[in-house]
């Protein structure tokens, strides 16, 4: 991989990780409702789960979807349905529980990692990384390098969203203000489906 291609990939990974999407909307809400410390498993699950997804796409899973297009359709509707469910959960989250004794709980590491497989934006990012920035020479090595580098860039990027949410907790301690915020986050999460699902005709 040339230095120019590597720098281009770093920019792609940074921009795609920082821009709004399902993961970042959920982390912003998680930061508000649970604080950054309790959101760390969620952050790690996103980055490491996405790393596995990128590697899987590069090592052959993407070709499976090309051979069986109906799997893309299944993924689209499964992802959309799950995002709607998550939006409903966010909209109905109660007042932040500083002591961590409330009924609501943040995403676990495994939940966040598994979510990447039904997250349409994650698939677009993974396919873009493999098809655009992975040289064919020493392909397997490059796929693994791209996967790890993407995770390294992704973790602090998504962490900024959780940190931003955590900083907003003091202004959203009022139950009514928090309910308005969570409802707005739920609406934005649903809205994030539109550009993702229609982007470049992928789905």
From TrEMBL:
Q: Where is this gene product found?
A: Cell membrane
Pfam families per record: LysE
Q: Where are the transmembrane segments?
A: 44-62, 74-91, 143-165, 177-197
Instruction: Supply the InterPro entries for this chain.
Output: LeuE-type
- Per the record, the major location class is membrane
**Topologically, how does it sit relative to the membrane?**
Multi-pass membrane protein
Q: Which UniProt keywords apply?
A: Cell membrane, Membrane, Transmembrane, Transmembrane helix
Q: What is this protein called?
A: LysE family translocator
